[in-house]
Amino acid sequence: MAASFPSPVLLCDIGGTNVRLSMAIEPGKPLTKPIRLHTADYPGLAEAIEAGLPQLPARPRSVIACGAGPVVERSLKLTNAPWLMQGADIAAALKLDQGLLLNDFEAQALALPAIQPEWTLPIGAVPPAHGARLILGPGTGLGIGALLDVDGLFVPVSSEACHIDFGPANADEEVFWPHVEPVLGRVTTESLMSGSGLARLHRARIASKGEPRPEVDGPAVVSQALADRGSEAAKTCAIFWRLIARFAGDMAITFIAKGGVTLAGGVLPHMVEFLDVAAFRTAFERKAPVDRLPKSIAVRLLLEPDAVLAGMAAIAAAPEKYALDYAARGWV
Length: 332
Fold this sequence. Notes:
This protein is of the alpha/beta class. It contains 12 helices and 14 strands. Helix 6 crosses helix 7 and helix 7 crosses helix 8. The chain is globular.
């Protein structure tokens, strides 16, 4: 049986760096302008919500929250911040009627039906077809999720493919790959395709040329690239897009994502100037002997940062459309 989420519903998108709060006063009504808070400023979600309440039009009766980390029924431990969220405790602290925790890219996958065409940039001219839909993207970490449509229900599929090993695929990558700094002893997809991964990639490229590793973070690499399109930083951004394309193609054939691939996260929208569509499609489609499959799969870049909030509002408005175990995961 589907849960009921009494209004007003507070929608929370929680990352390792930021928390975004928006409220659905009533189903179908426009959401309030998101409030942005710093995750590190609060010991947990309940405290962050209390801090944001003066900027909201009402106290929430329900909360739907997504976070970057694995969900176990009513709890979620953030991967990139020291928050352990226990739904029942949050509900008691805020006197809620109901609540739900989602993995961030589980929520991103569930939000796919709510995405408006004007929020996206197509990468290539391949139209979407019916089938599994995939969403992935770099931010503080790397998220991957899929969405199936089964007997009229939206079924999310979570993934921890952000932690699989990742290696070079051509001679150019083999030059700098030995210089990539391992994370916990490994080079994984997330260790290169994330905000910190962009900086790690840049340092490896510079070190491979016999030069000192620059002390930069991901935003600094993008800023340098935008300031000088002929710089090494710009070349790093172009290679980053190629790695994303290669990995997105791998995930597309893994899920047979004929419904299309959506690229999301907080990094790629700031790097659109370095997207070479033809080069992206080549890397995405180079999957012999099954290259006919990725050639038939649409890819788009999501430019609207608050799409996941709209997706969670859709869940609150019609929870019966989503195949979620509300009995095990509902907070009340």
